[in-house]
Every structure is written in structure tokens, then in C-alpha cells.
Amino acid sequence: MTLLTILIDGIAYGMVLFVLASGLSVTLGLMNFVNLAHGAFAMVGGYVTVLLMQRLGVPFLATLPAAFLVAALAGLVLERTLYRPMYAKSHLDQVMFSIGLVFMAVAAMKYAVGSQQQIISLPSFLLGRFDVFGVSVGRYRLFVIVLCGLLALALFWGFVRTRFGSRLRAAVDDARVARGLGIPVTALFAVTFAVGSGLAGLGGALGVELLGLDPTFPLKFMIYFLIVVTVGGTTTITGPFFAAMLLGVADVGGKYFIPQAGAFIIYGVMVALLILRPEGLFARSRS
Amino acid sequence: MSTADLTARVRGSLVLARKWHPAEFVVWVMAAAAFVLFPRQLLLLNEIAILALFALSLDLIVGYAGIVSLGHAAFLGMGAYTAGLIALHVTADPLVGLVIGMAASGLLGLVTSPLVLKGNDLTRLMVTLGIGLLMLELANSLGWLTGGADGLQGIAMGKILGIFEFDLFGKTAYAYSLTVLFLLFVLARRIVHSPFGLSLRAVRDNPLRAASSGVPIPWRLAAVYTLSAAYAGAAGALLAQTTQFVSLDVLDFHRSADVMLVLIIGGAGWLYGGIVGAAVFKLLQDWIAWFTPQYWQFWIGLFLVAFVLGGREILHGGIRALVARVSGRRGGGS
Questions:
Q1: Concatenated DSSP letters of A212-227
Q2: Which residues of chain B lie closer than 8 angstroms to A271, CB-CB?
Q3: CB distance B126–A274 less than 8 Å?
């Protein structure tokens, strides 16, 4: 039955989108910073995996932590040096700044590894499909769903149950008051930014097989991250999660059933949602 | 002070602001002189004039009304495709295409303005970005009309006013674009120094106070958004007519980002910002593309980052100091 297969493909796609965009939603909520360059960190992660596998023959699973770490490190360094002076500036300046970063990242990647689409060969135990009650499921899709599902659970737990999470939520709700209560918002943000970038890197690595990877990745998927964040809102993790699922299923389904409409449906839905619910689909009203 | 007094003073200051500064004549004389001075660079000059018009259109909403946009290419593309289609199917007269292109873009601006007027800066950035991408996707999927990825080919333009024929070197093209830019600039100049323009700036600086002073904010913003869209449509129509080709590139995201960069270089909120920015941007792009044709985007990006991080203050401060010194030496000026 193809319908269920499409659903599972869509969920796998949405899971990757969630891991890619979750960092963005927190940074946007915390510092009110519009970071359009988030996709560049994802691209870095993707290329770490591709290059480690192609050039050094490192097995796929071992490259995933490396993708996370390199992207997180890049995030940490850039936050410390370039991003920090931008927080006080206008949204427009932030947007232009991060677009500048995207342009640089795209051109630098073209220069370093060439503009061709990258292909990786997955290990054999992740290849092929198998049947679950008559539904054909790709092994890699299932792997992605399980891995990203665990990550999402860990994020929920970290966000809701830990001390770090409660401080983070306090800072997102009202950074000034949180600062006044002695919560180190700046350090909190540096850590969050690094983890968010690392998650983007991991998402980029997992997405090589599902989304494709070439130097224009940050531009191509920028709109997807923004949809996840703006539709999901920035005050919770569940919001972006469901937004990512919705987007993944709608995009895969749309491309399958109405291929001629292309990405039209997605953009249309995003504009409509932004107009009807400018605070995000699942946002609590902040009054 | 009585209301009549105040009205008279506001009128007086508007009339004063409308007076042409001598430096303004220099800009336009230089633009016209470039026609004779750089006969080999006319195609580049034409591109600068068109980009300047596009940036002028963005300045009307960003600089004067405080509406940020990341999807201004939607209007450029609308104007370009409309002008291209008119030339292919209706008439080869450039002026007809220009007017209809402007009208079509203006209409698109009017229709989409309610979407853009709601919400804060962030929502506006996202919605305009979404509208820009929607238009690109629309042009891509309506292949029977727009030619899809191949674009509109075989556009043959007639003579302007039945006299001036387009040539290979861009002579007519530059003269045409510069004339349109100049006329629309004069109109924009008149508009921003009118009570309407004043009310826009009031909305930009303090919407709450403007609303309580009786400014009908939604109508004013919708009006300027429509005007700006029509200007962008004119730029698109000029682009289509002078290059005799329209492709999906006119709707691409980088167009919206580039024009924002142009405005940031030149400075938003004064009408010459777009013109100065367009000249600097195009010359910079041309120069960078000359020594690194494939990776010019990197340097544009670097420029953007450096500019926002602090280069702007240095550059604009330097220009202001220079202007102050020059006008100081003449012993006058404010």
C-alpha cells in the first residue's frame, strides 16, 4: 500500500527537518535573532560526512558524531566572534548579515569541493526495504525515524525536565527578567547556539541521502527551516516538531500526488498560516 | 501656535525640501555625461540605471515607510514577464509594455499589500520572502505562458516613440532606462516631499503616535506599497525590453537580496541611496567578476557582513565628513 509508504517517507523527511531546524527555533526565540545562515551549519555537517566517507573511508555511522561536533564548533566560534555584535541591531541588519554569511558559505563550498551533487554509499544494513504488515519501509528511513525520534525525545526531556532547560525557557520567555534573576543568558545562548548548530550539522549529515547535498543547500532549504520555525513558534519544542512533521508529509505527499504543483503548495500554506497565526500555529498567546 | 500657523510652517518646510540642491544636478549631469564618456560601457550603465530604479522602488517602502521586504523580486519579475509577454503577443511598442508592466506589478502590490501590512518586521520578512518564492514557483510551473526554465525568448522590440531603435551597444537602452529612471525619480521626489510622504515618515518613526494623530495607516502603507511595486515593475519591464530576454532569474531570491544590499550600501531613507548603491554595487560586482568569475558571490557576501558589522558607519561617516568639508569650504549649506 503506497499511501502508508508515503506517510512513512514523509515522517522520515519531517524528522530530519526537525533536527535541522530545532536549533533555529531556539535561537530565534531566545535572542530574537533571524539567522538565515542556519542552513550553512547543516551544509557543513553534510560535507563532513561526505568527505570523511569519500576521502578517508570512515564508516557512515562514525561520521555522524563528527558532523555534529564540527558544526557545533563552527557555531560556537562564529557566535563568539561575529554573531554577538549583531544582537542589538535591527532585524533587517541581522537578515542581511546572515544572507552575507550564506553567500560566503555557498561560494566557499563551491571553491573547496565543487558544485556537483554529493552522493554517499550507505552501509549495506541500511540499504533496501522490508515489509512490515505489507507496508514497504526503507531501512534508512526507519533508521532516520528512530534516531531522530530519540533525539527529539532527548530534546523534550532536556527542555522540560533539566535545570538547563528551565533556565532556557525562562530566558526565552523574558530575557531581561531572567538576567535579573541571575541566569547567565549570554552563556546559555552560546551553548544553545552551538548545540543548535551541531544538530543542524547532524541533520545535514542524515539528510544527504534524503534531501541531497550541494553547495546551494543553505539557500534551497532556508525556506523550509523558516516554515518550521514560523509555523511551529519559538516557545516550545513540540510546535516546531509537529510543524516539521506536517511539512514533511505535505511535501512528500504533494510531490507524489500533484507533482506539477511543485513547492507551490508549501509556500502557499506558509504564507496563509503566517497571516492567520502570525505567532505560530501552536503558540500560546502572549498577553 | 495656532493650527493655521503650523500648517503654514509645515508647507514652508516642504516647499524648502522640494528645492533642488546643486549637488543633485551634478548627479544627473554625470549620469548623462557617462553616455558620452564611456561609450563602451553602455550595457553596464544600463544595468546600473535599472538596478537604481529597482532600489529606488525598495527605498520607497523600506526607507520612507519602514516596511522591510525580502521578496521585492516578485514585482521586478511581474513587470519583466508582463513586458515580455506584451512584446511577444500584443505589440512591440516599448512604452506600452512599460506602462502595462508597471500597472500589472502595481496591481500585484495592491493585492498583496494586506498580507504585508499585518504583523511585525519578522513576519513581514517571512511573508515577503514567501510571496517572492511563490511567484518564482508560479512562473516555473506555468510553462505554457512563461516558457518555464527556458524563459521568454525571441522578444523583438520596436522603436521607442517610433524613432529610436534598440542597438547592440546599448546606446538607446541606456538613454531609455536613464530617462525612465529620471522621470520616475522626479515623481518619487515630489511624492516623498508631499504631505503624503510626511505622513509615511510619521508612520515609520512612530506608528502609534501617527495613528492617534489621525493618519489612516493601512491606507497610506497600501498606497506606498502599490507605488513601490509599480516602480519595481518598471525596472523589470526595462530589464526585459533592453535585454530582450526574460528568465526565471528575474524572480530569483538573489535579486531580492541584491537590491537590499544596494540599498544598504547607498543608505535607505534618501532617494539617492538607491542610485549611489546601484553604481557601487554594479561596479564592485563587475570588478570582482573580472578576477574571479565563479566566486564573486563570496566577496559580495563578505562585503555584506563587513558592512553590517560596522563598515557602514565608517563609510557613511566618511562621506558625511567629506560633504561637510566641501560645503564648508563653499562657505554655506546646511
A1: ---TTHHHHHHHHHHH
A2: 115, 127, 130-131, 134
A3: yes
